[in-house]
Amino acid sequence: MSIKQISVFLENKPGTLETMTQLLADNQIDMRAMSLAEAEGFGIVRFIVDDIYETLTVLKDADFICKMTNVVAVSIPDEPGGLNSVLGVFRKAGVNIDYMYAFLGGRNINHAYMIFKVADVETASDVLRKAGIRIVEQEEISAL
Amino acid sequence: MERYFQKEIETASRDEIESLQSRLLVKQVQHVWNDVPYYRRKMEDKGVTPDDIKGIEDLHKLPFVSKADLRESYPYGLLGKPLKDCVRIHSTSGTTGKRVMAFYTQHDLDLWSDCTARAIVAAGGTDEDVCQVSYGYGLFTGGAGLDGGSHKVGCLTIPTSSGNTQRQIMFIKDLNATILCCTPSYAAYLAESMKEMDMGPDDIPLKAGIFGAEAWSESMRRDIEKTMGIKAYDIYGLTELSGPGVSFECSAQTGMHINEDHFIAEIIDPDTGEVLPAGSEGELVFTSLDKEAFPLLRYRTRDICTLSYEKCSCGRTFVKMSKPRGRSDDMLIIRGVNVFPSQIETVLLNKGYPANYQIIVGRENSTDTLDVHVEMTPEMFTDNLGEIEERQKALVDGLKSMLGIKAKVTLVAPKSIVRSEGKAVRVIDNRKI
Q1: Which fold has domain A71-143?
Q2: Which of A86, A99, B73, B240 places its Cα 20 to 30 Å from the Cα of B107?
């Protein structure tokens, strides 16, 4: 009930993100969603790709430090209040969100996709499903 | 009641010590002149013969021996006995160049064990104690050195060697180890692991630790003492001179007593080679007095420290050396404070980082800046930004407590630290002075 996200350690200096995206481009890897978090002197880039294992292999071979994390992805109608309804479900179930990011629906322009990092992926998926919110699986992300 | 392993010599008067040293020195000079062609050549180059050496007052006439001499004469050039009389070899790690091979006769091993036995007794050890030797065994002198002393004292010796932290703690607990011998960074690591296992000082029977072979600070000592509920004693030595036990700490914890019946210590100006008066800070030079297989005369250790002949509360009369602050040839002066790369390395190792670092010294608004670059590793990396920042802060705190000045810590990409000929360039000094 979760999808795989890749987090990569990047030094905070010009060109480091591009070096990574160049590598992904050279290997025909398609990013579905991405977010960048910054700290003092370094950053973490987090993203969802079509082929997770290929991406990890390519990154490690190029000496990037990366980790795979399970996150919850949902698909909601791209309309006012869409995100709000998901957050309501989480609040009622006491699910805390570590971080989240969003992207619009690829070929399905009426939908938005939301990526949530939570401590307990199973519980979060469960409460979402019971609330009738559509959870997105790895296959769907890959096929987008 | 202070206990000694060899009370008579450990508490001898200065006159007695010096007359013994003079007698042994004359003999040792004769030995190297006769048996080590490399030494004879060095002495001849300086115009000195054994006849010129009547006692320790003539020590300054002898040529220095440096690490370069040891490398040049590798492996057998300084051998003082035929190989058939030698029974053991130990070796340095060779991180700063070619390995140094040290040879031992049975006599040499015995005197070395006496030295470490004195250290164990000074730390409160008796034949009632269980001594866990968690120094590495092998070519490294740590394991063999403390092992020998532990046997001489009559402790029940547990030769765990280094590594396998869980097992180390299990042995300490299950076999009632009372004395732990290892490097200070490994002791700090064991202490850290104990905390993670929710174990406090009362959960283990240890009472003393003998820690040496690398740089460590007073604050590290207090941390280890508190977490393990022990008294931590420093021990010093060099493979070239036998290994740990050249000097050792007593209950006063105010410096390490040099085993002066086996080694003469001098402090010299590292630039001019001139012998400095007692109490001055300078480079430590050792002369081994009765080693047979690998005798060293006036060996320049490159360690910077001071000597103190003041009366010690423990009753020992051997001169005390201060904890060496590092090697003379890589000392940096930052904001007026002496900083040694080895200190920074110790902090990294203590915090579980590999020693992959680079020190960048700069100057901003006429103040020196110190930036330590540390390579990120897959083990250290997590998706949680806050966790990484906490680790970064722990490093900053550790450096502050070790160095006494604030350093910035920058986490950099793996393999990004410039290496020349396979060895990382440790220091970049951008100050224009």
Answers
A1: VC0802-like (3.30.2130)
A2: B73
Would the CB atoms of A64 and B385 count as touching at under 8 Å?
Answer: no
Minimal CA separation from B381 to chain A, in Å: 7
Q: Contact B245/B235 with Cβ under 8 angstroms?
A: yes
Spell out which residues of chain A touch residue B384, defining contact as CB-CB under 8 Å: 98
User: B383–A16: do the CB atoms touch at under 8 Å?
Assistant: no
Which chain B residue lies closest to A68 (C-alpha atoms)?
A: B383
Q: Which of A99-113, B68-82, B193-207, B403-417 has the lowest mean pLDDT?
A: A99-113
Among B327, B359, B386, identify where a domain stops: B327
pLDDT of B62 reads 97
- Give tens-digit pLDDT for A48-72: 998 899 999 999 999 899 999 999 9
B291 and B175 in one domain? yes
| CATH match of A3-69 with 3.30.2130.10 | yes
Q: Where in the sequence of chain A do the CATH 3.30.2130.10 domains occur?
A: 3-69, 71-143
Strand partners, B265: B286
Residue B414 with chain A: CB contacts under 8 Å: 63, 65
Provide ipTM, 2 decimals: 0.85
Q: How far apart are CA B104 and CA B110, in angstroms?
A: 10
Domain boundary among the residues B312, B327, B342 is at B327
pLDDT, average across residues B312-333: 84
In this structure, the answer to whether residues B126 and B197 fall within a common structural domain is yes
CATH, residue B135: 3.40.50.12780
The DSSP secondary structure of B150-167, one letter per residue, reads: HHHHTPEEE---S--HHH
Percent of chain B with pLDDT over 70: 95
pLDDT of B98:
67
Q: Quick one: B414 and B321 in the same domain?
A: no
- Asked if the model's pLDDT at residue B421 lies above 50, the reply is no
* CA nearest to B377 within chain A: A65
pLDDT in tens, B23-55: 999 999 999 999 999 999 999 999 999 999 999
Q: B414 at the A interface (CB within 8 A)? A: yes
Q: Please give the DSSP secondary-structure letter assigned to residue B51.
A: G
B378 contact residues in A (CB cutoff 8 A): 65, 67
- Among residues A95, A113, A96, which one has the least CA distance to residue A104? A113
Kindly tell me if the per-residue pLDDT of B423 is higher than 60: no
* Any A CB within 8 A of B377 CB: yes
User: Pairing state of beta strands B427-429 and B357-364?
Assistant: parallel
Query: Do B89 and B209 have their domain in common?
Result: yes
pLDDT at position B58 is 97
Report H helices in chain A: 16-26, 52-61, 82-93, 121-130, 138-143
Give chain B's domain count.
2
